[in-house]
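Sample entry (527 residues):
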Amino acid sequence: MSVFFENEFKNESENEIKNESENRCIMLPEEVKGKGYFALTGSKLKAYVEKWLDGIDEERDFVEEILNYCKRSRKTVYRRAAYRKAVYGITGLPSTGKTTGLLQAIRKLAAYEKCVYISFDRKTDGDLDTLQQLLDRLNDDHKYVFIDEITCMKDFTNRIGILMDQYTSRGKRVVMSGTDSYAFLKVDRCWYIGCFRSISFMSYEEARRTTRMDFSSYLMSGGLYGTEKYKGTKGLWNYIKDSIVDNLAFSVRRNPIECSFADMSETELCQAVFLTMCIIVCSWEEDLQLDGLLDTIFTGERSTRRSKIIGNLGQELGITFKRVERQVIEDILRMLENMKVVVVIGNLYRDNYGTKYMITVPFLVNQIAWLIANHVVKTGEKRKEESVRQINEIALKSVVISHTAYHLWHKTCYYYRDDKTEVDLVLLDQEDLRLEELQASLVDINITNHADTAYEKGQRMKEVNPYFFEELVYGIDERIILYLGPTNKKKGLTNVMDFLESYQQRNIKTEKYLDEMEKMLMDEQKQ
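Predicted structure, serialized as tokens:
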């Protein structure tokens, strides 16, 4: 028990404080502070929310989802929330608006006496016993519980499932957030206690609505807040440390997670993550599948291409391959995928099963690509204009691929490459009960705003035959050529922004359709 509790309830006997049944009878005061945490409700919470949100009006999409979760009946929550899951969880990198979103949801609920907001310091190891002590003091009127940075708890992945069940079963709505997304993933896989959403990737429509940024700015930042302080090599290193390395390190240190880098120092892990992400960007610049690039780097064979790649990554960034084993890079890749920082897309060509990796944060793509490009330009291998165009094209592909992979949950993403042809993105319907035959959509992504240039480049898709696909595909539903100019249906050209917005609407329609199907099944079961 903290010193604060001893002072706050000094008139209560020590035996009463330690007795769990008595604890539940002691009402939670409007403000509780302890080492590494605080809890607010009522007028104290209202004042805190108003101060934090002063001048902030726009909301991210997940705020409305929180409200929908909170307002559902108890039976509906157990039926709907991701198939009988009763907790709502949010995870995402720093500067993505998790805390702001939680407080905006509290403000829109407009029921401060019914809300409890508990915030933990991410850099302080929290104690689940302390959290339980706070939650046990909730009275029946405290219906909505918001817990910020819950992943800082020791042994969070093993104990949180049982703990949350105690309160959701009593009709409480529990909304959790945490930066350490890998720990959240372990909970989701082990306990299935809630509907968890990663908000690290922000769609262009959402970024435009919340920050008023144009598409060019979005390609540079991906909608992240406060990226100005992370510019340059040192700034990029600090961002990777703050947002990714700490995420991995805290998750591994606080929970029983086995990996090859568990004993690495923070500096060594930061260098390994930095190197891994540089390799991903380099694989797109060199037009290689990631496995092929790793083979080139780690075989030890002396070749011009290997020397060039190692030189580009090492000389400008000061990173050497001698200190990082391939197994470490492969473990980091797997965790980055789980954290939604990286998306993996397989080759749909039946004779080639190589994969590509794409970083889902445009800010990271741009900053890493620029560091590599600076060295390439210095050595005279490319002109600056060529490097700029290539960087912009990689950033655009990152946006489109990430959007379709993480926002269109009913689509499966691939690319296609055979001896002659490569298609940037192939979309297959993952789960649509209305389709009897699987159809593919081919997408070609171009950085140009010239219609003729994009059209000429996109013609290569005509050579793709679904007979050579790895999976059974009955035909090609549509061929989409994306570029930055206006949509031209006669030539099959689609503006990138129009594409992203139209697919977001299609995703909403499909979700409504599945909701209707689920309701129909529930009605049939009642009969």
